[in-house]
């Protein structure tokens, strides 16, 4: 006998969607600290052996974030990510085929405040990445310091996150047989300081490391633009030269991460809080840009590929902006 469940009511669906986003925001704002505290606290309890054994495992497994990570498909396919997808909602848009016999380097733009589109599209199956791009395994790079946090590192790797160092990138891009996509949020943490509604400023003009990496491995470059990524949060004004911006840059140099002062809505009210607004995100994956392999490319060759990438990214933005209600006079600005 087949048991059929009644569909969830709309109010309940919206509560589950909000709850899924709350846990996601918490995982980046507080889970790391909780994992560290739990690891240390356990040493002073009768469960000290848990931390001791984990520390031994951690040492043995220390290179894993730079060796492709360790994804857990049960977590990637969890229903909680589908509720998170529907909260905004988030849609992954395909514009060209990706040959599963090749590896790809995807440049993701913009960073936004918490990179919601990058996480949900590449670290979960909620938006159907594997269905849209069969035979392609996505990896998303994240600052290496996050993989130094006990327990939290395993949570990150379960979704397909890998550390953002050259060794880690090369490991993925040179995998034999192809079928891997390495996504890099090129603007990085610094770009998050300019993430606010209506902003189309990308920190990309002098970012050429990812281009050199693509040339070194002969890996096609794929521009990806996430429309709506910057619309999820408001941010305290921090114009260049202001004391706040100088403080944020100083903290970034010390800690390696940026600290944008952002706000949006609350859990039970809509006037103020740290929960993102319900605004749609459309992550558009462009067509691959062929890159000729060369072990030591000259600056001129790097500049040529870099300029071609900028042109293709701008073209992608211009071709799709009208569909997603971007004003006609809005254009990408590279700084």
TrEMBL record:
It holds the Pfam family DAGAT. Keywords: Acyltransferase, Endoplasmic reticulum, Lipid biosynthesis, Lipid metabolism, Membrane, Transferase, Transmembrane, Transmembrane helix. It is found in: Endoplasmic reticulum membrane. Its EC number is 2.3.1.-. The keyword Acyltransferase applies. InterPro entries: DAGAT. It is a multi-pass membrane protein. The keyword Thylakoid does not apply. One of its GO terms (cellular component) is endoplasmic reticulum membrane. This is Acyltransferase. It comes from Buceros rhinoceros silvestris.
């Amino acid at each position: 006998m087949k048991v059929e469940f009644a569909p969830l009511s709309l109010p309940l669906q919206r509560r589950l969607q909000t709850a899924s986003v709350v846990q996601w925001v918490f995982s980046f704002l507080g889970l790391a600290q909780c994992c560290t505290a739990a690891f240390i606290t356990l040493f002073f309890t009768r469960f000290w052996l848990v931390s001791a054994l984990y520390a031994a495992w951690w040492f043995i497994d220390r290179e894993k974030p730079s060796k492709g990570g360790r994804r857990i498909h049960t977590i990637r396919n969890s229903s909680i990510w589908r509720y998170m997808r529907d909260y905004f909602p988030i849609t992954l848009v395909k514009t060209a085929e990706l040959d599963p016999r090749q590896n790809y380097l995807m440049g993701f733009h913009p960073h936004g405040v918490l990179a919601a589109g990058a996480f949900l599209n590449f670290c979960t199956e909620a938006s159907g990445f594997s269905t849209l791009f069969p035979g392609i395994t996505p990896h998303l790079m994240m600052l290496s310091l996050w993989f130094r946090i006990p327990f939290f590192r395993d949570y990150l790797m379960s979704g397909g996150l890998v550390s953002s160092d050259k060794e880690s990138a090369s490991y993925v891009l040179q995998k034999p047989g192809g079928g891997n996509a390495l996504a890099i949020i090129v603007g990085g943490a610094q770009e998050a300081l300019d993430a606010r509604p209506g902003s189309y400023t990308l920190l990309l003009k002098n970012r050429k490391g990812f281009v050199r990496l693509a040339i070194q491995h002969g890996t096609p470059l794929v521009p990806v633009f996430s429309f709506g990524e910057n619309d999820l949060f408001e941010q305290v004004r921090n114009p260049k030269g202001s004391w706040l911006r100088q403080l944020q840059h100083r903290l970034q140099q010390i800690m390696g991460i940026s600290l944008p002062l952002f706000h949006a809505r609350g859990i039970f009210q809509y006037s103020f809080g740290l929960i993102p607004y319900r605004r749609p995100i459309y992550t558009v994956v462009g067509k691959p840009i062929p890159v000729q392999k060369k072990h030591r490319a000259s600056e001129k060759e790097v500049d040529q590929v870099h300029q071609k990438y900028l042109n293709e990214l701008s073209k992608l933005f211009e071709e799709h902006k009208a569909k997603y209600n971007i004003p006609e006079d809005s254009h990408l600005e590279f700084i």
